Amino acid sequence: MNDPNIVPSGVLLVDKDPGMTSHDVVAIARRSMGIKKIGHCGTLDPMATGLLMLVVGRATKIQDLLMSEDKQYVGTITLGATTTTQDAEGDIIEEREVGALSDEDIRAAFEKYSGNFEQIPPMVSAIKKDGVPLYKLARKGKEVKRDPRPVYVTDYELTRVSLPQIDFTVNCSKGFYVRSYAHDIGATLDCGGHLSALRRTRSGEFTLERAVGVDDLKGGEAEELINSMVSLAEISLMRGA
Prior knowledge:
2 domains
């Protein structure tokens, strides 16, 4: 018989729907599982879908460790328009002609942002300036100087080019802003661009294969959800500990 005083521990993988914050998903999980001690690893913007890792119980202690892993995303860049948020959620700042870009032009722009490079975080981000998250300053119409941060891209693939849209897959470091990646590629191509779709498909060793959908998270039985978690023992084996 399970001891009601022992909080189940592990990582619950969720396939986040668009239009939700990562905190929304945590709130649903707390209600459905009847567990308060739940956090998430690696915020996904409301526009984004895909893999959100929820740490439950004692797994909250390895939150930073799990967040430090490389990620994989699939996304779409729409060229010809820059936005206030560098994605489709923001207001359009400028529209420009895309022109006749060759495959070589596009490939060269992506190559510029592969390997090790520095990225300036977007204003709409959770990074703090003097203790205040940048997104709060951005809401007030303020823009402050952001220091570039070292990031890396280990691999990328162009899966569809149908201008003004480019579909891509990117494998990248923690702290990588795919919105800034889209914005910078658009700037390099001299026509501007923004991120119009994003889905996280991998974080470290975790993929969407064992993820539960949001509807299943809302309507699932607590015991079922607890049993679908990746256990701490399994995580140790995955990490070779």
